[in-house]
């Protein structure tokens, strides 16, 4: 797992790093529709799909081509306007951020914006490897993190860039900021390549003068991997993951003080590693994307066999560590009750160290359903077909039943996710 130093360097470049984005589904405000990002396949494109729950109908909304300088398949972010009548998609093209506002049920974008992103960091080419959170919506404004806080007016297209605090001076380490939005609360994670970090709330009372309000000062260790943050609206608790893949910790802060710590990681707690975090509506339970390594399945073994064949011919290829991955939804009560895990699907031969950023969970507005969209397809990999689906976990039922809703083959073939 990558250390925090390069991760923070990439966070500082987050505004340039939208070549790959997290695959997080998004519920409409009334919960009736779900946006599902997808990527990969024959054309190496990113896609945005929509599932209508009452009619059980899928719609292909958008396709995004890989930029000329991009080395990874783009995945457009997907969020809803407050009235649920429009979808806001954003992605990167070269050194620009592109935003397309799409009508639900209409054709073509109603508004289309793009703006330049600039950076003086010499490691800008590293941006392709960074996976960031979607932008945050505040009224009719879209907020982006990065080396600056960028505010886009969705009606006028006006751009307002605001420098991060304490970022002046030639001897001051350049900071970068992640934004995490849930409900009316926007939390952030801000740090620099010097491994200084803080987490807190973003004051959006004046969008022309956004103000980070620190809650926790962090001194991460060098071996820390991907960090996830969430702040509960009731109670004001802050949840934060730390540590590496082997020994991960989930830390709960109350009033800026550490309240309790839960152990996770491949070496503890049944080998479960946590991804993104979401609080329940009452602030009493924390939901998390969960992942557990499994013994390699047939596909992973076949990949290993192909490397063995090359070695027998005298070649010396570097073989990625192949393993199969079980994707879960974790429920972590703060009253001391046991952690509950609901398995979703098995991911074959996952070799991406950033896999935790790819598959993220989303909570419905009524707090009764968790959605996970698996729309990631490797190039011409028919083995991905079984997992191309939307998974819904019913939190209102004690048994936590999971509904698997396949993405129709007509859409996956048309979009190039699967070969004809």
SSE diagram, text form:
Blueprint: H1 4-11, E1 20-21, E2 23-24, E3 26-27, E4 33-40, E5 45-52, E6 57-64, E7 77-80, E8 86-93, E9 96-103, E10 111-116, E11 131-132, E12 136-138, E13 141-144, E14 148-153, E15 159-163, E16 175-182, E17 185-192, E18 197-203, E19 211-218, E20 229-231, E21 237-243, E22 248-254, E23 257-264, E24 273-279, E25 285-294, H2 298-312, E26 323-333, E27 340-350, H3 355-358, E28 359-360, E29 362-363, E30 369-374, E31 376-377, E32 389-394, E33 402-406, H4 409-415
Parallel strand pairs: 1-11, 2-28, 4-31
Antiparallel strand pairs: 3-4, 4-5, 5-6, 7-8, 8-9, 9-10, 12-13, 13-14, 14-15, 16-17, 17-18, 18-19, 20-21, 21-22, 22-23, 24-25, 25-26, 26-27, 29-30, 30-32, 32-33
Number of helices: 4
How is the main sheet built?
A: 5 strands, mixed
Examine the secondary-structure arrangement and name the CATH architecture: 7 Propeller
**Domains, number:** 1
Number of strands: 33
At the third CATH level, what is the topology name? Methylamine Dehydrogenase, Chain H
How large is the share of residues in beta strands? over 45%
What structural keywords apply?
single chain; 420 residues; four-stranded antiparallel sheet; 33 strands; 8% helix
What do these coordinates show?
The chain has a single domain, classed as Methylamine Dehydrogenase, Chain H. It contains four helices and 33 strands. It has helices spanning 4-11, 298-312, 355-358, 409-415, and strands at 20-21, 23-24, 26-27, 33-40, 45-52, 57-64, 77-80, 86-93, 96-103, 111-116, 131-132, 136-138, 141-144, 148-153, 159-163, 175-182, 185-192, 197-203, 211-218, 229-231, 237-243, 248-254, 257-264, 273-279, 285-294, 323-333, 340-350, 359-360, 362-363, 369-374, 376-377, 389-394, 402-406. Strands 3, 4, 5, 6 and 31 form a five-stranded mixed beta sheet that branches. A four-stranded antiparallel beta sheet has the order 7-8-9-10, with no helix packed on it. The protein has a four-stranded antiparallel beta sheet with strand order 12-13-14-15, with no helix packed on it. A hairpin with a 4-residue loop joins strand 21 and strand 22.
């Amino acid at each position: 797992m990558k250390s925090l130093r390069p991760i923070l360097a990439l966070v500082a470049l987050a505004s340039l790093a939208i070549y790959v984005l997290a695959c997080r589904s998004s519920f409409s405000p009334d919960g009736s529709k779900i946006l599902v990002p997808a990527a990969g396949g024959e054309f190496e494109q990113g896609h945005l799909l929509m599932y209508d729950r009452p009619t059980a109908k899928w719609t292909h909304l958008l396709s995004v081509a890989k930029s000329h300088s991009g080395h990874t398949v783009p995945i457009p972010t997907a969020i809803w306007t407050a009235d649920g009548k429009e979808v806001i998609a954003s992605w990167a093209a070269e050194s620009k951020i592109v935003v397309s506002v799409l009508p639900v049920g209409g054709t073509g974008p109603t508004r289309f914006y793009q703006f330049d992103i600039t950076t003086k960091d010499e490691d800008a080419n590293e941006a392709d490897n960074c996976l960031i959170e979607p932008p945050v919506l505040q009224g009719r404004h879209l907020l982006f993190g990065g080396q600056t806080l960028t505010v886009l007016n969705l009606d006028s297209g006006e751009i307002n860039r605001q420098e991060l605090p304490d970022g002046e001076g030639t001897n001051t380490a350049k900071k970068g900021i992640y934004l995490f939005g849930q409900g009316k609360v926007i939390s952030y994670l801000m740090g620099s390549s010097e491994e200084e970090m803080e987490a807190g709330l973003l004051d959006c009372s004046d969008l022309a003068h956004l103000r980070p309000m620190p809650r926790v000062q962090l001194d991460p260790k060098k071996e820390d991997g991907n960090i996830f943050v969430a702040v509960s609206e009731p109670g004001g608790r802050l949840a934060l993951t730390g540590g590496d893949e082997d020994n991960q910790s989930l830390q709960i802060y109350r009033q800026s003080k550490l309240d309790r710590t839960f152990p996770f990681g491949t070496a503890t707690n049944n080998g479960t590693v946590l991804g993104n975090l979401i609080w329940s509506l009452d602030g009493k339970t924390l939901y998390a994307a969960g992942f557990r390594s499994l013994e390699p399945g047939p596909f992973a073994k076949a990949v290993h066999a192909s490397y063995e064949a090359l070695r027998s011919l005298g070649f010396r290829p570097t073989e990625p560590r192949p393993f199969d991955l079980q994707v879960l939804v974790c429920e972590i009560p703060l009253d001391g009750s046991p952690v509950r895990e609901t398995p979703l699907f098995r991911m074959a031969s996952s070799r991406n160290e950033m896999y935790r950023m790819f598959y993220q969970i989303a909570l419905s507005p009524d707090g009764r359903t968790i959605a996970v969209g698996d729309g990631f397809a490797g190039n011409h990999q028919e083995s991905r077909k079984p997992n191309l689906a939307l998974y819904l976990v019913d939190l209102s039922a004690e048994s936590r039943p999971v509904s698997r809703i396949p993405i129709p083959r007509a859409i996956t073939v048309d979009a190039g996710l699967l070969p004809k």
